[in-house]
Write a structure and sequence with these properties.
Radius of gyration: 22 Å
Distance between the termini: 59 Å
CATH superfamily of the domain at 11-174: Jelly Rolls
Strand content: 15-25%
Order of helices and strands: EHEEEEEEEEEEHEHHHHHHHHHH
Number of strands: 12
Shape: globular
Largest sheet: 7 strands, antiparallel
Number of helices: 12
Strand order of the largest sheet: 1-3-4-11-6-9-12
CATH class of the domain at 11-174: Mainly Beta
CATH topology of the domain at 11-174: Jelly Rolls
Length: 331
């Protein structure tokens, strides 16, 4: 099984194949070793795999193009299959695990896995999360050590929150796998996206820490968050995560969030976005419209979707970013 070094930059690759042996080898290298077999040998096997390797997880877009079955041994990682189309029926030891467009399927690191049937039109976004990554993220949210493996529930309901939001974020990242200039490959975006995906997953899936995680925030003394604010102001382009800002402030993540909301009226990542929006505004005011574009400026400051950037910009500055950019031409 392929191990991605902790300091690696995000990278992606795609494979199209009609060879079952090649499909097994590709899945074994980038996800897990497994057996695969056609349920109907008269059909043509036409698979496509696209893999996005990030520091703490791998996201794969998987399509077999035929009814499939197979099995694998213990995964060693937490894993979620988010169906984009079709459905599948599987089992992990004595746990029934099924997926369709309304339900994502969740696997634990241990247990033998059997895929009974994947429909011919099935397409899934397969999220493989390293065990330490998810448990460390939970420990950061709880401000307490996580001493036991997470007993994840079998499914995530995608029809309601928080599963709906987690699925939307996963699809957003998945849509960028085949885009070589995608924002997921930009450090300013990649690190916070990773953190957001892991945190949203922890809120979306059931586990033994759920009550503590979703309970009332801890009572914290009024912490001084000036160090985190100063860091954001000094280097707004740095790919901060909430966990890194908490470390800079030398407070727990729950306290950092609580104190940011109390002192500046928003969470730390929302504050960071506001500072970056101001920086983008300043750049647009000074930019040459012949040399740059609104999309390029938005990208440099970590805004994933230009339309949302434009809407946020207009709400704050009462003009479209394109108008700001063209102001220089008029002078």
């Amino acid at each position: 099984m392929r191990s991605v070094p902790a300091d690696i930059r995000p990278f992606a690759l795609s494979v199209d194949t009609s060879d079952l042996d090649e499909a097994r080898a590709v899945c074994g290298e980038h996800l897990y070793p497994r057996s695969l077999r056609l349920l109907d040998r008269s059909t043509r096997f036409s698979a496509r795999f696209a893999f996005l390797h990030m520091r703490r997880f791998t996201l794969a877009d998987v399509r077999y193009g035929a009814e499939m079955a197979g099995q694998s041994d213990e995964l060693g990682s937490y894993h979620v299959n988010l169906p984009v189309a079709g459905e599948f029926a599987a089992r992990q030891d004595d746990r029934s695990i099924n997926g369709d467009v309304e339900h994502a399927a969740v696997y634990r690191p241990v247990g033998r896995n059997i895929l009974h049937r994947s429909s011919a039109g099935c397409r899934v976004l397969a999220l493989k999360v390293s065990k330490p990554a998810l448990e460390d993220q939970l420990a950061m949210l709880l401000d307490a050590p996580v001493r036991a493996s997470l007993q994840l529930s079998e499914e995530i309901d995608l029809r309601r929150e928080p599963g709906r939001s987690w699925a939307a974020l996963t699809r957003l990242i998945g849509a960028e796998i085949d885009n070589p200039t995608g924002l997921v490959f930009e450090p300013i975006v990649a690190a916070p996206l990773e953190e957001s995906l892991l945190m949203s997953l922890l809120f979306a899936v059931g586990h033994q820490y759920q009550d503590v995680l979703t309970g009332r925030p801890p009572h914290c003394r009024r912490q001084h968050v000036a160090r985190a604010i100063d860091a954001i102001q000094a280097e707004p382009q740095r790919p901060y995560t909430a966990a890194e800002l908490a470390e800079i402030a030398q407070v727990s993540l729950p306290c950092l969030r609580q104190e940011f909301r109390r002192q500046v009226g928003m969470g730390p990542m929302a504050y960071l976005r506001e500072v970056r929006l101001a920086a983008a505004h300043a750049e647009l005011l000074d930019a040459d419209p012949e040399q740059t574009s609104v999309a390029a400026v938005a990208r440099r400051w970590g805004f994933v979707q230009v339309a949302r950037f434009a809407a946020r910009y207009r709400a704050r500055y009462r003009v479209a970013p394109s108008e700001t950019l063209l102001e220089r031409r008029g002078h």
